[in-house]
From TrEMBL:
Keyword field: Cytoplasm, Lyase, Pyridoxal phosphate
Family listed: Belongs to the cysteine synthase/cystathionine beta-synthase family. Cds1 subfamily.
Gene that produces this protein: cds1
Function comment: A cysteine desulfhydrase that generates hydrogen sulfide, H(2)S. The H(2)S produced by this enzyme modulates the balance between respiration and glycolysis, and contributes to redox homeostasis. Probably eliminates toxic levels of Cys (which can induce oxidative stress).
Organism, as annotated: Sinomonas terricola
SUPFAM superfamilies per the UniProt record, alphabetical: Tryptophan synthase beta subunit-like PLP-dependent enzymes
Cofactor section: pyridoxal 5'-phosphate
Catalytic activity: L-cysteine + H2O = hydrogen sulfide + pyruvate + NH4(+) + H(+)
Identification of the protein by name: L-cysteine desulfhydrase Cds1
Amino acid sequence: MRRIEADSRRSADTHLHAIPLPAAWGIDVYLKDESTHRTGSLKHRLARSLFLFGLVNGWIREGTTVVEASSGSTAVSEAYFARLIGVPFVAVMTRGTSREKIALIESYGGRCHFVDTAGEVYGEAARLAEACGGHYLDQFTYAERATDWRGNNNIAETIFAQLEVERHPVPRWIVVGAGTGGTSTTIGRYVRYRQFATRLAVVDPENSAFYPSWASGQAVDGGASRIEGIGRPRVEPSFNPAIVDRMMRVPDGGSVAAMRDLKARFGFDAGPSTGTNLWGVWQLVAEMLAAGESGSIVTLMCDGGARYANSYADDAWLAENRLDPTEHTATLDEFFGTGRWAG
Ligand SMILES: *Cc1c(COP(=O)(O)O)cnc(C)c1O
């Protein structure tokens, strides 16, 4: 506990960047930059919470092997915290996980254990932990309860504190994607608890189970997501649909177009799930403009673009994966030129 507390005291909060929009619009958009955590993504917060939860529950003790099922970013952050407190760490991932992420996990002393399909990671992680008397962190189940929704410097509390002296300190919307669903659940609960008028919008990529399940009110299965970090083939236990005010399905090409546009137009180099967030944000801005409303919107920069130099930032990779941002780039150009959303 002391080592994690000391690490957190040595660390600074992440920036809340203001994105400059035309003054005549009267709308402020903010980007909470989670890429600047030591392990490069918003999963740094989750990993810290999951280790603290495991320690206070007596599930992690000296020498406990810690195991996780992860598509990559969570395991990178967890490997960091495992090394910090001196316990062994094993990440169960599919063979397709990017080389960059595997190298990061190994650089923190973590071991990678591969399975063939995404559906196998949960069972294999539980089996491995059981076999060695270790602890399965299980991000998809515990993300929502390991984070203290009342505060304790969770992501919602810090966003509202950073907005306090802005001209629109209570945002109309906070826009996030869902992987575990932990971030949206924490923000939704905090907004209700503190009685803010802010509404929560969740953006979801093609194929994901979250959107159709939210829209129909019953659990519907989806498929594999092409946007790393968000969208799941099943509705994860940490996702709470009841506190989501609006969900928006985002075309994968739109996520890539908005990610690239953010870099070209505003100079922020982000990953694809940040593009998904912005595709939703720009539509909400257009709606506010059409309704003659002013106010603010907050979203997250979930991670940085460097991890995706050989994928989403690479035209050949995009073509191979049949991701075409062209038509969506035109939608964004029209939006920034006119304030209207044609997509
Ligand atoms: C995990 C993740 C998300 C979604 O956050 P959750 O709290 O798990 O829903 C978004 N973007 C990236 C890059 C992620 O790794």
